[in-house]
């Protein structure tokens, strides 16, 4: 086993607290990486305050460090065999906790298409059919050197062809793209409205009596947009559905999940491929709601459980009993619904007791709502101790998600029929025959299942937690589009 010693200096400021100086720390930005059969290199940021060594257990992988000793580069030779291969790299030093990075490599003869979207902005978007993806890139800066000019880029996943649109300093993020790549939604500022670009046409969605209309998702053909706008008089949010540019204010619940009158309104977050089923949340307590055939449904309320738990008293510092509502929540995720509109992947927020001497702990379980039967499937896996989030669903009722919202996120596939909980990389390997990193998760599955898209979670000292986009197209998916 070969060992490489890389001394890292100057990563922590002299003003760091005593605890940070007393305890050695090693933090690689990634815990796994998958190479394609051709091989290549990947550079991983490593943050440390001690000398550390890297051990590897495979000769096909080589390791080098950058001159400033803040990065580790792993290079894989081509895999000419018919077998997938793996390598384990172990980082250790001082009294720091040992860290491991798992590298794997696809076998020769693999004919699908796998792509990382390294240069696009955090959390790029995907069309429901998976054929187009997009994000913002920084194409320059104003004379002040600080104000970035960001340009939308739309990528044809089948061909790799890229189309860059005119940039602006006002663009905040790309929010949605249609199945033909011709309709895109761009948010203006962190709290402003949305610009819709449809071919050569630029549209600013408006709703009478409201301001800051934002589009969160579009239907496959781009004719339906869903989102929200703020009532000018009450300042409450209203869920909006636009059909061919005409807005409709959707109905909202009278009560929030605390049982009091809804004050902040509600938001629409996503829709089925044809736009017939829309989902979102009431905005007082993020309880999941959806609209189908003109009717409002409130699965958060229908699945609610009231529990008496021990909580910390802010007055005495001791413990006291309190009642909490456990229910299905929905946050700002635009892909939670299956393309056919039947399933919505979400989360059930619960609490578990820690006995009589400690306050109860919040725990999050994956949940799947069936809009056809009205059932809510809450999957309370024993292995979940803190957080397991449902992010999306496919037409077959599989729910996809991750086990944390930041840091070392692990992707999972949940099946309510077991119920079962399978690591994402294992499930993708079994169903698609392709290797992915364990810190990748799926957020979009095409209707035919031939294209999967998602995010890879990376930790960066400079940028914090970053969600890099990726997609995979099966050989059948590539052939079908030729």
Structural summary, described in words:
This protein has 482 residues and is mostly beta strands. The chain folds into two domains: 3-105, Immunoglobulin-like (Sandwich); 113-480, Methylamine Dehydrogenase, Chain H (7 Propeller), CATH 2.130.10. The strands form nine sheets. Strands 1-5-8-9-3 form a five-stranded mixed β-sheet, with no helix packed on it. The longest helix has 9 residues, at 424-432. It is globular. The two termini are 47 Å apart. 43% of the residues are buried.
Please give the CATH class of the largest domain: Mainly Beta
CATH architecture of the largest domain: 7 Propeller
Beta-strand content bin: over 45%
**Quick one: overall form?**
globular
Question: How much helicity do the residues have?
Answer: under 10%
Strand line-up in the sheet with most strands: 1-5-8-9-3
Q: How many distinct helices?
A: 4
Q: Which residue ranges are poorly predicted, with pLDDT under 50 across at least 5 consecutive positions? A: 1-21
The rounded Rg comes to 24 Å
